[in-house]
Amino acid sequence: MSASASPAPTSDESRIRARIDDWAAALRAKDVERLMAHYTPDTVKADLAPPLWNTGAATVRRNYERWFPTWSGPLGFEVHQLDIVAGDAVAFARSLNRLSGTETDDSRHDSRVRAPVCFRKIDGDWKVAHEHVSVPFYMDGSDRAAVDLAP
């Protein structure tokens, strides 16, 4: 579908897009407080690192607090192919995201991840209720993460 044929975003979709933009800016700045303002208290996150489920905002916060110090300087983070569908009380967004930066051991990191995110409207504000971050893997017997893929 061409861009001109796409329907105009609803106000809820626009507000969710703004939330995602602010969340991404907070991630780039490694600002835990600003990030956590986007999550529900009972949020569930399936992240790249174990465990399989991270339940509750306190757990998500702790994981960010542990992960950010493993990076030197700011993170590079880009959101691509963002698609949002919003209902009255829940919404769904999906995107392909690029994460880049320098780790504390001076190694460079540049990968893409898939990120479906479920939002819940609470008192008129959209919050992340469920987030899932994943990478595909090569099914050639190596089981290597396919972090080198590009859209």
Describe what this molecule looks like in 3D.
With 151 residues, this protein is an alpha+beta fold. The chain has one domain (8-132): Nuclear Transport Factor 2, Chain: A, CATH 3.10.450.50. It has three helices and six strands. Strands 2-1-6-5-4-3 form a six-stranded mixed sheet, covered by helices on one side.
Summarize the structure.
This protein has 151 residues and is α+β, with helices and mostly antiparallel strands. The protein has helices spanning 11-29, 32-36, 57-67, and strands at residues 39-46, 54-55, 71-86, 90-103, 108-122, 125-132.
CATH class: Alpha Beta
* Mean pLDDT over all positions: 92
Helix content: 10-25%
Give the H and E element order.
Answer: HHEEHEEEE
Numbering strands along the chain, what is their spatial order in the largest sheet?
2-1-6-5-4-3
Number of helices: 3
Shape: globular
Radius of gyration: 16 Å
Instruction: Give the second-level CATH assignment, the architecture.
Output: Roll
Distance between the termini: 17 Å
What is the CATH T-level topology? Nuclear Transport Factor 2, Chain: A
Structural class, by secondary structure, is alpha+beta
Tell me the major beta sheet: 6 strands, mixed
How many DSSP E strands? Answer: 6
Count of separate structural domains: 1
Low-confidence residue ranges: none
The fraction of residues assigned to DSSP E strands is 35-45%
